[in-house]
Amino acid sequence: MQILRETKLEGLRLAKKIGRAKVLEVLSKKGLVGRGGAGFPIAKKWETSLGVKAKERYVICNADEGEPGTFKDKFILKNNPETMIEGLLIAAYVLKAKRCFIYLRGEYDYLREELEEKISEILKKSKMKISIEIVRGAGAYICGEETAILQSIMGNRGNAMYKPPHPTVEGLWGKPTVINNVETLTCVPQALVYDDWNPDYRLFSISGDVCHPGVYEWELGVKMSTILDTVKPNGKLKAMAFGCFGGIMPVNKNLSVSQNTICKEGCQHGAFSIIFIGEKHNIVDICLSIAKFYTYESCGKCTPCREGTIRLVNLLKKIKSKKADKSDIKLLKEFAEHIQETSLCGLGRSCGNHILTSLKHFKKDYMGYLK
Ligand code: SF4
């Protein structure tokens, strides 16, 4: 796997040798984009932050991987943490940051001790005078969102904030702060060191009704038939969900899996986590389960998300109990669209994706429940 290649501080040595501007040029040429879902070019993000005049600057590694069905960052933290830490050091060097943070998902706290040992070992070897602190999340999904991470690290309740200002310009304690996730930072030294590093190799978290769930690496454009041959469906498959927020679409063996082909179906690839759903499941039941998750995780700051996610659950429950008619389906769609359009952060803006895409692809399941 490309992501498991170790760089043994060669990337940091190279970065210091060629200098900040050249590092940005190389990362840009190599096409490294954020692996958390948004796909923003890393060099552009770092450049924006460097363009802000400030006495202090911070770097955060987002290890708060809370999306259901996503576990690729945990795989890296367990199997190649050294390269991720090296990526953090390169970011600190390029951004002239003296303080870095790893915001670790609460459920991954068992990895903390080993991470701390690796950090002190690598800092010693690098001779860099910076600090890397691990901050443990408390289990809130919203804290994977950039502005909520900032609040949490500063000791506040993990609420999402309005943007702009973006964290790259005004982040921790009002200072420019760059946030990259575990996979992105791991790619930084690898992209610098290896000439054959390929930006299209992505980690996929595979789960659901398959015999071999796990983390796999495939090149974008991989055929769905190749994925299915590897993970072996456990019975006939009906659908696939891209985590919780990316939507649901039918399984098509001929699909070339990439951002474009997934978006064409109205879904979002996010961090490439695919939950396969077998024929035995009704999509309304799956949507109800996802909707309950959003209700539970909504931070409650803005009305459309706080109130709307509860309405979605109630409507889905009504449909499931065969007390709904066609007008409720129409209302469900309108609610989902309205919440997405008016919510403040990514949680509210994506909480209707599973409903809207399943209404597009699996309307039969809804109609079968009507009174
Ligand atoms: S959209 Fe939801 S999670 Fe985001 S700020 Fe509003 S209430 Fe909180």
Brief sketch in words of this structure:
With about 375 residues, the chain is an alpha/beta fold. The protein is built from 16 helices and eleven strands. Helix 5 packs across helix 8 (about 180-195).
Write the layout of secondary structure elements.
Layout: H1 10-18, H2 20-30, H3 42-50, E1 58-63, H4 72-79, H5 81-95, E2 99-104, H6 112-126, E3 131-136, H7 146-153, E4 177-181, H8 182-193, E5 201-208, E6 214-219, E7 222-223, H9 224-231, E8 237-242, E9 248-250, E10 256-257, H10 259-264, E11 273-278, H11 283-297, H12 303-320, H13 326-342, H14 346-350, H15 353-361, H16 363-367
Parallel strand pairs: 1-2, 1-4, 2-3, 5-11
Antiparallel strand pairs: 5-6, 7-10, 8-9, 8-11
The structure holds iron/sulfur cluster.
Can you walk through the features of this model?
This protein has helices spanning 10-18, 20-30, 42-50, 72-79, 81-95, 112-126, 146-153, 182-193, 224-231, 259-264, 283-297, 303-320, 326-342, 346-350, 353-361, 363-367; strands at 58-63, 99-104, 131-136, 177-181, 201-208, 214-219, 222-223, 237-242, 248-250, 256-257, 273-278. It is α/β, with parallel strands linked by helices. The protein folds into three domains: 2-193, Rossmann fold, CATH 3.40.50; 201-278, Ubiquitin-like (UB roll), CATH 3.10.20.600; 283-367, NADH-ubiquinone oxidoreductase 51kDa subunit, iron-sulphur binding domain (de novo design (two linked rop proteins)), CATH 1.20.1440. The protein has a five-stranded mixed β-sheet with strand order 6-5-11-8-9. A four-stranded parallel β-sheet has the order 3-2-1-4, sandwiched between helices. Strands 7-10 form a two-stranded antiparallel ribbon. Strand 2, helix 6 (112-126) and strand 3 form a beta-alpha-beta unit. Helix 1 packs parallel to helix 5 and helix 5 (81-95) packs across helix 6. It is globular, with a radius of gyration of 21 Å. The protein starts with 9 loop residues before the first helix and ends with a helix. The mean pLDDT is 96. The chain binds iron/sulfur cluster. Iron/sulfur cluster binds next to helix 12 and helix 14. Iron/sulfur cluster (SF4) is lined by residues 142, 160, 298-302, 305-306, 343-345, 347-348.
